[in-house]
Write a structure and sequence with these properties.
- The protein is of the alpha+beta class.
- The chain folds into two domains: 291 residues, 2-methylcitrate dehydratase PrpD (Orthogonal Bundle), CATH 1.10.4100; 123 residues, 60s Ribosomal Protein L30, Chain: A (2-Layer Sandwich).
- Helices cover 54% and strands 8% of the residues.
- The protein has 20 helices and seven strands.
- The strands form two sheets. Strands 3, 4, 5, 6 and 7 form a five-stranded mixed sheet that branches. The chain has a two-stranded antiparallel sheet with strand order 1-2.
- Helix 2 packs across helix 4 and helix 2 runs parallel beside helix 18.
- The longest helix is centred in the first third of the chain and has 25 residues.
- The protein is globular and about 70 Å long.
Length: 440
């Protein structure tokens, strides 16, 4: 099909050398954000389990693990680093995909980039391809499949696209790589993991590994199905590749929890901008939100994943401590201050807010004080969306918030400077060893 030929041509010929400065800045911001999320994810139990599993199941190779000493084959390293990238649910997302492209695409591309020792500029090109193809794959997937499936399904296609560029795949071989990735991707029931939070989360680590494997298999001659980009739903989404860059549409999360809980947190921030709230004096909190948000757990969390896929815990944590970060979802699970605040919260589904989803994630919060005063927010969307963005300084603050506790202030600053000039790096192998050294 014509559209598929356009896609293959794009993957073969894209280069950051032709990017406008704004899009290149967006790409580097995406890279800095996912690197910071991956570093912060190092201290989770899921990261430890994934590392031990990968070391036992995949052979040693050239691809680094973030803040672990081992080096594995690309598929193994991609699996581990993708686990870290999404472990705290702080990684980037895209509204129309209802998922998280960066955590699938970055670990895949960096693993294969290291294995092939490409330059920083080539790595950035592969990362860009992964984002552009992956986001479009997510949009098409949700148009063609009625059930709500996880990021690992369509994210695998984006990962395979970025890896295909690094491997130098051409023509029909790229199509086989994308078809393999779609077929091998983690086509999993997302809402079941919302209802029963676990380390499976968004199927991201398995989708990442599948994308890396799909491209390598295609290179070896392993044939795949025609990819979802050959469907009618894909027409129009491919023709603007290289012109309309979707990486500019990413959202960035300021809180370590499911995106669907974040509008409620922002609604509280909006109330706090107008009124002084003393948390001990709060009597009742009512969250008006959309169905998917209301489906998040309302129980006391027993582990990090249950804290992230929760509506009440992050809201209560924010009211109690002014942030929802690694400390809250890792160390404050049994915090009686947070748990008692959770007991004050009720949730109401609002059809008007349903109608805006998934283009916007919206909530309204009403807070009733012990003295009878009642404060209500406006309709608030999750902060960090491309049409309600974090500013440059807020993005830097998030980077240092996640990396400084692990790397130290000066090392975190040095790492950000390296990322901002990555196109001048002669070998991408210099990036993760730099992180390893900084973390010592």
């Amino acid at each position: 099909m014509k559209a598929n030929n356009s896609l293959i041509t794009y993957i073969e010929s894209e280069s950051i050398q032709s990017l406008d400065s704004g899009t290149l800045t967006s790409l580097k911001e995406a890279l800095a954000d996912i690197v910071a999320c991956t570093i912060a994810g190092r201290n989770t139990k899921a990261a430890e389990i994934a590392k031990e599993f990968a070391v036992s199941q995949w052979g040693m190779g050239n691809s680094s693990l973030f803040l672990f000493p081992e080096r594995l084959t690309p598929a193994g390293a991609a699996f581990v680093n993708a686990t870290l990238a999404n472990a705290l649910d702080l990684d980037d997302g895209h509204r129309l995909t209802k998922g998280h492209p960066g955590a699938v695409i970055f670990p895949a591309v960096i693993a294969v980039a290291e294995d092939h020792n490409i330059s920083g500029a080539e790595f950035l090109t592969a990362l860009l391809i992964g984002y552009e193809v992956g986001i479009r794959a997510g949009i098409v997937a949700h148009l063609t499949r009625l059930d709500y499936h996880c990021t690992g399904s369509w994210g695998a296609v984006g990962a395979a696209a970025g890896v295909s560029y690094i491997l130098g795949l051409k023509g029909g071989t790229i199509e086989h790589a994308l078809g393999n990735a779609e077929y091998f991707g983690a086509y999993s029931p997302m809402m079941r993991c919302i209802e029963h939070p676990s380390m499976l989360k968004d199927g991201i680590n398995w989708g990442c590994m599948a994308g890396v494997s799909a491209a390598h298999l295609a290179k070896a001659g392993y044939t795949g199905i025609p990819s979802l980009f050959t469907t009618e739903e894909a027409e129009g989404l491919i023709d603007d590749l290289g012109k309309n860059y979707r990486v500019n549409e990413l959202y960035y999360k300021p809180h370590a929890c499911c995106r669907w809980a974040q509008p409620a947190i922002e609604a509280i921030r909006e109330i706090q901008s107008r009124h002084i709230l003393i948390s001990q004096n709060i009597k009742k909190i009512v969250i008006h939100t959309f169905t998917e948000s209301a489906a998040l757990s309302k129980e006391y969390p027993e582990n990090t994943e249950e804290a992230q896929y929760n509506l009440l815990f992050p809201v209560a944590a924010f009211l109690s401590y002014g942030e929802v970060g690694p400390k809250q979802v890792l160390e404050h699970l049994n915090d009686t201050i947070i748990l008692s605040m959770m007991d004050k919260i009720t949730v109401v589904v609002d059809q008007k807010l349903n109608e805006a989803f998934p283009e916007k994630a919206l909530s309204v919060v009403k807070i009733v004080m012990q003295d009878g005063n009642t404060y209500q927010s406006d309709i608030i969307q999750a902060r960090g969306d491309f049409d309600y963005p974090l500013n440059v300084e807020e993005k830097k603050e998030k980077f240092f918030w996640l990396t400084t506790p692990i790397l130290g202030k000066e090392s975190a600053k040095s790492l950000l400077e390296t990322i901002q000039s990555l196109e001048h790096m002669k070998s991408i192998r210099d990036l993760i060893p730099t992180i390893e050294e900084l973390g010592k």
